[in-house]
Amino acid sequence: MANKGLFASAVARLLQPRPDAVNREGAPAYAYGPEHKLAQLAATGTLADNFYGSAETQLADVLAAAKATDPYFVAQAAIYARQSGAMKDMPALLAAYLTVADPDLAIPVFDRVIDNGRML
């Protein structure tokens, strides 16, 4: 297979998007929009310490992303994360967030997300 770094054209190098953020390791990265970030955290976030970050950092990230998006999207992300992603803590957190952000929307979301007494 051809080495893309060796055989890339000058035009392709110019058209390649430049990293616009820095990840927790300090390496160049691409920033996500708030909806993308919320969807990713809802589907994969565990609210636990990991190699690159702490649980507190992840909690702050998900709350900041939720505040920056529409409550309806937050509701969709919570339902998707619970029903399709088999997540528990993150959908429960998003349902709790909705009780403040949009109490009317929180009721149907609660019914679809909280399906186990241990989630309370």
Nutshell version of this structure?
This protein is mainly alpha-helical and 120 residues long. The chain is built from seven helices and two strands; from the N terminus they run ααββααααα. The chain has one domain.
Helix-strand layout with pairing:
Blueprint: H1 4-7, H2 10-15, E1 21-22, E2 28-29, H3 34-44, H4 55-67, H5 71-83, H6 89-101, H7 103-113
Helix pairs in contact: 3-4, 3-5, 5-6, 5-7, 6-7
What key phrases describe this protein's structure?
single chain, 120 residues, mainly alpha, two-stranded antiparallel sheet, 7 helices, 3% strand, elongated
Written description of the protein model:
This protein starts with a helix and ends in a 7-residue tail after the last helix. The chain has one domain (33-119). The longest helix has 13 residues, at 55-67. The model has no long low-confidence stretch (mean pLDDT 91). The chain is built from seven helices and two strands, in the order ααββααααα. α3 crosses α4 and α6 runs antiparallel to α7 (103-113). With 120 residues, the chain is mainly alpha-helical. A two-stranded antiparallel sheet has the order 1-2. It has helices spanning 4-7, 10-15, 34-44, 55-67, 71-83, 89-101, 103-113, and strands spanning 21-22, 28-29. The protein is elongated.
